[in-house]
């Protein structure tokens, strides 16, 4: 694969800290609602919803709250809030590309706040299509290392139809074509040693831009600030930096 996501790697290392954020429950419930809106309320027939529910449960979200979010998504429960999904594009320090997925009931407010975050941290908003072509959608499955060797995971991934495997400090990351995510996940889960931390569709960079020193610190601060915004669901970037 041309370029793995350094920001995704950093996010995984920050997972425990992220779990302490006050807005993680609202973000998890919003994703459940949106998943149900797009694919229906049955998690067995809607893989995005299944993943969203798993993530919400991992964040200790109450089952009643999850069920209400599903009903909001399917239209069974109408509380008057009309949430829409938006994609913002921009540039960060060092010429890095940034994609921001958001869900909001007030697009003007959210756009203004996202634009301010970009400006505050040395970046700028861009027109739709300016940077999205630098990314492609992939299935991303993160597996705990545990007792698994790299050869174990490579063999299982290839047999299951995956495209690539990346080795991280305490996990393996398996990349798939978007339509193969669920089938590859199920194949990997046949091995009792496999513990899957997450499985979802993400935007991965086709190539990366290397930034170092102050620029690298600025990029990370920008991405953190965007990610912490209540309306933001996911942030992607094509930056790379030395460990």
CATH superfamily of the largest domain: YebC, transcriptional regulation domain
Lateral strand order in the biggest sheet: 3-1-2-9
- Helical percent range? 40-55%
Poorly predicted runs: none
Can you summarize the main beta sheet? 4 strands, antiparallel
Q: Which class best fits the helix and strand makeup?
A: alpha+beta
Number of domains: 3
Q: How many helix segments?
A: 9
Query: Judging from the principal axes of the Cα atoms, what is the shape?
Result: globular
Fraction of residues in β-strands: 25-35%
- CATH architecture designation of the largest domain: 2-Layer Sandwich
> Average pLDDT value?
88
First-to-last CA distance: 20 Å
Structure write-up:
By secondary structure, the chain is an alpha+beta fold. It folds into three domains: 6-74, Integrase, N-terminal zinc-binding domain (Arc Repressor Mutant, subunit A); 87-103 and 113-133 and 206-240, Alpha-Beta Plaits, CATH 3.30.70; 135-205, Alpha-Beta Plaits, CATH 3.30.70.980. The chain contains nine helices and ten strands. It has helices spanning 6-13, 15-18, 24-39, 47-58, 63-74, 107-120, 150-160, 181-188, 213-228; strands at 84-92, 96-104, 124-126, 135-144, 164-167, 171-176, 196-205, 209-210, 232-237, 239-240. The strands form three sheets. The chain has a four-stranded antiparallel β-sheet. Strands 5-6-4-7 form a four-stranded antiparallel β-sheet. The chain has a two-stranded parallel ribbon with strand order 8-10. The radius of gyration is 18 Å and the shape is globular. It starts with 5 loop residues before the first helix and ends with a strand.
